[in-house]
Design brief:
The chain is mainly alpha-helical and 171 residues long. It has 8 helices and 2 strands, in the order αβααβααααα. Keywords: Cytoplasm.
């Protein structure tokens, strides 16, 4: 059974990288984890501190850290963040900050239903030609809801004898 800290580690490890197995965390996602979980507070722990600690715990040529290296990094950051606490208490406090946190996605556009939007998108209030393009449930009929569709049969538009060519010449 994975600890809450491990689950949070995994969620951030996979964030933004669908090919990630979730067992290793890159610097970008480590910084994001520290920021989203309020480990990085901009005063006692800054983004520079986070980068330095990341570089310190990772293997020499590696670009990612494992959960064990992550624990080391968090222990070090915890001592900076919670000055005066012993290392284990600091680590516990950091883990408390991480509990149940998911990667935040700021700037993601949410659907708006402000003011007149509901009124404008309610198909039951449509009239005229627009009304014909939706069924009773308000679902669009797509191409079937259009009266004037293009005939790509190869005949000239308005030609009434379409499909009669073979009948005339098969005597």
């Amino acid at each position: 059974m994975a600890s809450e800290a491990e689950r949070t580690f995994h969620r951030f490890a996979v964030f933004g990288d669908s090919s990630s197995s979730g067992t290793e965390l890159n610097n970008k996602n480590f910084s994001k984890l520290c920021k989203d979980c309020d480990i990085m507070d901009g005063k006692t722990v800054t983004s520079t501190d986070v980068d330095i600690v990341f570089s310190k715990v990772k293997a020499k040529n590696a670009r990612t850290i494992t959960f064990l290296q992550f624990q080391e990094a968090v222990k070090e950051l915890g001592q900076k963040r919670f000055k005066g606490n012993n290392p284990d208490e600091a680590l516990e406090n950091v883990y408390k900050l991480m509990e149940g946190k998911d990667p935040a996605t700021p700037g993601v556009t949410k659907a708006t239903t402000v003011g007149g939007v509901d009124r404008l998108t309610d198909t039951s209030k449509y009239t005229g030609a627009h009304k014909e393009r939706f069924d009773k449930s308000g679902k669009g009929k797509g191409i079937k809801g259009r009266e004037e569709t293009t005939d790509n049969s190869g005949y000239v538009s308005g030609y009434k004898g379409a499909g009669t060519y073979d009948k005339k010449n098969s005597k």
